[in-house]
UniProtKB/TrEMBL annotation:
SUPFAM superfamilies: alpha/beta-Hydrolases. This is Haloacetate dehalogenase. It comes from Pseudomonas abietaniphila. It holds the Pfam family Abhydrolase_1. InterPro entries: AB_hydrolase_1 (IPR000073), AB_hydrolase_fold (IPR029058). Residues 26-278 form the AB hydrolase-1 domain.
């Protein structure tokens, strides 16, 4: 799926991050969402590699990257820690400044990266994500029902982990079946690998720690930044699936206007939440056009 890409593991100050690199041209970092790994970009990354040096990673806790224990304030899985990993990965490859796109949790990592390391990100593509500061301060019945896993996975250990580990394949397939298509549009090899990864109890624990951090330390950071007037100043793309909860239940452009000062482009594709898997051609066109 990543022919002509080189796979390696990069040791950062806080984790070991699985990394694949391919192509030539300006650097472009692609970050996946939950419950995936770098394979979520397999339909798009090789095409983008014709114009960019594409870097895809497994976020800490996901895929085959290392999985710190977490605990305490869950800061091991804060978006600040994840963003620091990614900056160090890019530095190890010789890229002090780079373009970046993130889907879902990866977009949350990118949001924090743009706030903590604004000098690093040339352009930022936020794919099907609304800032958690907005979501958690404006919980609606529709969003809570659609995004039920947020409230489940943030519960104290070991409750969600034990329940997920009892039948991890059922859990992941249920979570991914957000539309009538179910998981039909996922690449079979990629889907099998997502299932392989979630069968590791360390992965389910890390995923829950990620969500626990979101409700705690991440929200605290976001609140402090928002209240002080800090916003994303990086040239930004806001892209979402028109059939997903972001497209159906929110005014994404209006919400993002409160968190980013330099929105260059907003766009939709005719998909649910998993844009790059369900509508890879349309998603590729938007990303390639924005970052070129």
């Amino acid at each position: 799926m990543f022919e002509n890409f080189t796979k390696t593991t990069v040791k950062t100050s806080g984790a070991e991050i699985v990394t694949v690199v391919g192509g030539e041209g300006p650097p472009l970092l692609l970050m996946h969402g939950n419950p995936f790994n770098h394979l979520s970009w397999h339909k798009i990354a090789p095409r983008l590699a014709k114009d960019f040096t594409v870097v895809c990673t497994d976020l800490r806790g996901y895929g085959d990257s290392s999985k710190p224990e977490g605990g305490g304030d869950h800061s091991d899985y804060s978006f600040r820690a994840m963003a620091q990993d990614q900056v160090e990965v890019m530095q190890s490859l010789g890229f002090e400044r780079f373009n970046a796109a993130g889907h879902d949790r990866g977009a949350r990592v990118l949001h924090r990266m743009c706030l903590d390391h604004p000098e690093k990100v040339l352009k930022a593509g936020f794919v099907d994500m609304l800032p958690q500061h907005h979501l958690l301060n404006n919980v609606t019945r529709q969003w809570a029902k659609f995004s039920w896993h947020w409230f489940f996975m943030t519960q104290d250990a070991p409750t969600p982990e034990r329940m997920m580990d009892a039948d991890p394949e059922f859990f992941i397939l249920r979570k991914l079946s957000k539309t009538a298509q179910g998981t039909a549009f996922f690449g079979p090899e990629a889907l099998a690998d997502y299932i392989r990864c979630i069968k590791n109890p360390a992965t389910t624990h890390a995923m829950c720690e990620d969500y626990r951090a979101t409700f705690g330390i991440d929200l605290d950071m976001d609140t402090a930044d928002f209240d002080s007037g800090r916003r994303v100043d990086t040239p930004a793309l806001i892209l979402w699936g028109e059939k997903d909860g972001v497209g159906r239940n929110h005014n994404a452009a209006e919400v993002w206007s409160r968190y980013a000062t330099n929105i260059v482009q907003t766009a939709t594709v005719p998909s649910g939440h998993y844009l790059q898997e369900e509508c890879p051609d349309e998603t590729y066109e938007v990303l390639q056009g924005f970052f070129k």
